[in-house]
Amino acid sequence: MDMSNPVSTVVQTLEGPVLAVLARTTAPLTGRRIHQLAGAGSERGTRNVLHRLAAAGLVDATTVGPSVQYTLNREHVAANAVLELTSLRPRLFDRFRDAIDAWAIKPEHASIFGSTARGDGDLDSDIDLLLVHGFDDPPQAWRDQLGDLSDQAHRWSGNYLQIYEITVDGLLNHLEAGESIVDDWKRDAVHIHGPQIRALINRLTHKESA
After folding, report:
1. Could you give the C-alpha distances from 32 to 29, 40, 42, 59, 140, in angstroms and in order?
2. If both were cysteines, with which of 40, 64, 68, 70 could 17 make a disulfide (CB 3.0 to 4.6 Å apart)?
């Protein structure tokens, strides 16, 4: 799945980015603004797409002075399908939450980081998953869970799962060493399980200084 444009999984044409823009807001937008936010195609192409969608009734077009403003017609029978397609990334995060919450052996913390978290990955991007646990030597049951999740993640998205597995002490070592990846986690991580990454880091650093 293209994490920067998940709707392209189903809609490969310019309609995909245009509908993604309209699905994110209820505010009226001009064709020029939609083109800027879509980041795809030409402005003329965007306007042609908007005219087609308006003709189908999926988009409302309202003339305001010299311009035409567009909104998604959320009463249209196809609107729910559009909204579902444009929420694929949050739905993927929910799949991870449900899976890890059901584990027999749970981590101290789990979050997705990197391009999937930021929403700027592509079809070839891995899904980066941070797992913090307290095992020096994880049991086989833990390893089996990771293998199952890797298989599930690929089935859910078509992307491969890259697991960054670290112990609580290892996280402390990262903090003490000033590893830049910790800043990435604090800035971009999408929470999946356990305490938020910032809360976990604060707890560990306060415990260490006590």
Report:
1. 8, 12, 10, 15, 56
2. 40
